Amino acid sequence: MRGEHAGYACGAALGFLADLIAADPRRGHPVAAFGRAAGAVERRLWRDHRGYGAAHAVLCAGGAAAGAALLQRATGRSRGARVALTAATVWAVLGGTSLGREARAVGGALTAGDLDVARERLPHLCGRDPQALDGPQLARAVVESVAENTSDAVVGALVWGAFGGVPGLVAFRAVNTLDAMVGHKSPRYRRFGWASARLDDLAGWPGSRLTAALAVLAGPDRRGALRAWRADGGAHPSPNAGPVEASFAGALGVRLGGTLAYAGRVEHRPVLNGGARPVAAGDIERAVRLSRKVSALALATTVAGRLVAGAVRHRSAAARRGSGRKSR
Fold this sequence. Notes:
By secondary structure, the protein is mainly α. It has helices spanning 2-22, 30-45, 50-74, 79-93, 96-111, 115-121, 135-182, 194-218, 222-232, 241-252, 282-327; strands at residues 256-262, 265-272. It has a two-stranded antiparallel ribbon.
């Protein structure tokens, strides 16, 4: 059992390193393949009904997790095969390096004063309508996206990997991908995507809280991050994006939230860390650096947690065996 946990730790570290070096491929990404399969299932199942949406979520996420469990079982007792499978899966589900790359692309365009390029690149990060956004609004959208996706694309996956190994990693990424596909409140998905959105809220809860806590620990303004999290984290309409965005806002000393638009739909969200200054283009690089620190700390925290839990279970099992021999 201890070897299994050590193998996961080694595989997770190798996968994290692979994401830093290679990031996401432009073509042939496993998550994109899952998205195409989920889209095909949706075309057959779609009805304007929550029950059909729940079936879609269970079939797609459950199928992905079951396939991952079968792959993990197929490795048998080969430690090398398990490490390799874990490393490949961690690389596939993490998106931290691609997140930073896209954020910096928008930041570079804003610094150069090229709003057209910045607006063209923003959809690579989030689903907001970029055409009506000025420079500070674009910068704010990027920082908010970096904060939220640090949790969704890195920390949350590592948390579920520590709990459930390869199936946990795959299940989290599948749920998060389904939410991005059908979980938004458009007329087509208001009912059909309800189950995927709620499932994503549940799956994202532990990772978002760990992300917020690590932003407090790693940020340049720890008190500001903790204060903003406590004061404003619960005001956001998303139960998971709120703590993360608020802690990043406080850590960076900027103001997030407010009015935004998604494909013609305008939302007026609460302001986070309202007493701070607006976001500037230079804050994007600061947000990316904070995201990288949080991601590295999340890897260390989740791996250490799994190793400690494994050691405790091993000692408990050894104690029970010893007690059994004594009773005989």
